[in-house]
Amino acid sequence: MRQPRGLSSQITVWMVSVSAISLVILVVGWTATYAIVSKIAPKLIQFDPNESWWQFSLTDWIAFAGSGCLGFLIAMFASIALARRIVLPVSAVASAARQVAQGNLSARASCSAPGFGETAGLIGDFNRMATQLAAYETEMRTWNSAIAHELRTPLTILRGRLQGLYDDVFEIDKGMVLNLIQHVDGLTRIVEDLRTLSLAEAGRLELLLGTVDLASEAKAVLAMVGPDLAAAGVSTEVDLRGVVVLADSARIRQALLALLDNVVRYASDGRWVRVETRASATEGLIRVIDRGPGLPADFSTRAFDAFTRADESRSRAGGGTGLGLAVVQAIARSHGGTARSLTAIDRGAVFEIAIPRQQLLM
After folding, report:
1. Tens digit of pLDDT for each residue in 340-362?
2. What is d(CA 107, CA 201) in angstroms, rounded to the nearest whole number?
3. Pair type for strands 272-279 and 235-240
4. Which of 25, 140, 170, 346 has the most CB atoms less than 10 A away?
5. 99 and 107 in contact (C-beta within 8 Å)?
6. What is the pTM assigned to this prediction?
7. CATH for 146-201, options being 1.10.3470, 1.10.150, 2.60.40, 1.10.287
8. Are the CB atoms for 322 and 261 separated by under 8 Å?
9. CATH number of 210-361
10. pLDDT tens digits, 168-181
């Protein structure tokens, strides 16, 4: 980051110049007013052609000079007070900006002198900006650490298997190759999820919008993931009602597939899942209900945050990355909708994707 050199000194010079000009104007105005009021005006009223206007007595000169000095002192103190209320807050912001530019994102601007509306607001705006920058840096470090952690395990396994094959510790067979392919698929899924989240965060997630029937998309996804659900011992119940929205069919399938993948990984103990599609006045809804362990009460608000898990050890054992629900939320928001975690009536979890229908109703 480029350091804002000389900003504080430039502002100070500018403010001093303005104050000096203000001083001159105040002094000249004060003395001119005194001359007009005390000398010129009375002489105009009582004009004497034999007396020159500039022939003042000593008392007049003393009064004139004293008036000017008093005006100068008042203007000087007023200008100093004015300059402090303008320059000091701006100087505080400039000083804090230099520290932020040098990498100290904990720096904040503070000033003891009360500022005017704009300068006082400048300090508050700068401090909020610095706080946001610090939050972004913390989030970036958390993401980098989480990404490295998620990639380390499959890469370590892959290297160990390949090294074992190279050293003739393992024999090459279809089972070993399939295992390696599964780890590669896991890495591919992590990379694709990270790409989706990054594009959504930047507002650049491309959508091929068209008229989409959510019930038809749900049927297609269930046909794709049905064998995995059956292999996990999960029976499927459906209640699909036709609801048409303007959406990207591939992204809708990706989001629903992520929800059903969660059921296979974390809720297969419940042996049951229900998929519903509904239409409200303003939204098309896809709902996935399971009878698994459900979500802890304090986790539901963080369920759609990236790299969060309700049960760290169990999720890692199931191969989860903590990105699935974050991807679901990113896809829903890219359509102008949202993803929600609802309270289950009995046990288990309820996830809902809501896509707005206003564009089709117009």
Report:
1. 988 777 778 899 999 998 655 44
2. 27
3. parallel
4. 170
5. yes
6. 0.63
7. 1.10.287
8. no
9. 3.30.565.10
10. 888 888 888 888 88
